[in-house]
Amino acid sequence: MEVYKQSMNLVTDVYKLTKKLPNEEKFGLISQMRRAVVSIVSNIAEGSARKNAKEYIQFLYMSLGSLSELKTQVEVCCRLNFIDENTEMENEIHYINSMLSGLITSLKKKV
């Protein structure tokens, strides 16, 4: 599944990015960003294992929420000058958002 694969790539990218953040953010932004990105892919995986589309959709909405959280955290990092503006990651987040939204729309037609 493409959205799962892209989300796993985002996990790797976020872990690489957070290694560059200041050590004092270990229990702040670093922890929050890693938790959010792992939540995205975990909810996709758990939802896809459910027996019906309604449950799957609910997990996909949770993934969207975590993705929005991550987008905000990346912006915070940019505003605090912890990282340079990260257009590539922002594009990756936007792409995953589009794929998740499309999948939800597709599944809703089956419910």
Can you walk me through this structure?
The chain is mostly helical and 111 residues long. It has a single domain (2-108), classed as de novo design (two linked rop proteins). It has four helices and no strands. The protein has helices spanning 2-18, 29-48, 53-79, 87-108. Helix 1 packs antiparallel against helix 4, helix 2 runs antiparallel to helix 3 and helix 3 packs antiparallel against helix 4 (87-108). The chain is elongated, with a radius of gyration of 15 Å.
What's the quick description here?
This protein is mainly alpha-helical and 111 residues long.
Output the structural class.
mainly alpha
Contiguous uncertain segments of 5+ residues: none
Write down the domain tally: 1
How many β-strand stretches?
A: 0
CATH topology: de novo design (two linked rop proteins)
β-sheet strand percentage: under 5%
Based on the model shown, name its key terms:
111 residues; de novo design (two linked rop proteins); 0% strand
Question: What is the topology?
Answer:
Elements: H1 2-18, H2 29-48, H3 53-79, H4 87-108
Helix pairs in contact: 1-2, 1-4, 2-3, 3-4
